[in-house]
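User: What would this chain look like folded?
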Amino acid sequence: MVARNESRTATLLGVLAAAVAVVGYVVFGWRFGGDSNPVALGFALLAVVAAVYFTVRSD
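Assistant: Here's the prediction, encoded as structure tokens.
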């Protein structure tokens, strides 16, 4: 597998997403397969959009 030159912005967004996930899990009790939480869903959708954007942009 060839390593790609990753964007610093993408890396920082990934670290931020991981931090939000940990805080959401520990503090707010966000779980997969649980009741729908609009805030958690919003963060997840933003993470997916960012991942798609940076993946398409890097090709």
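The longest helix spans residues 38-58. If you want, I can go into more detail on any region.
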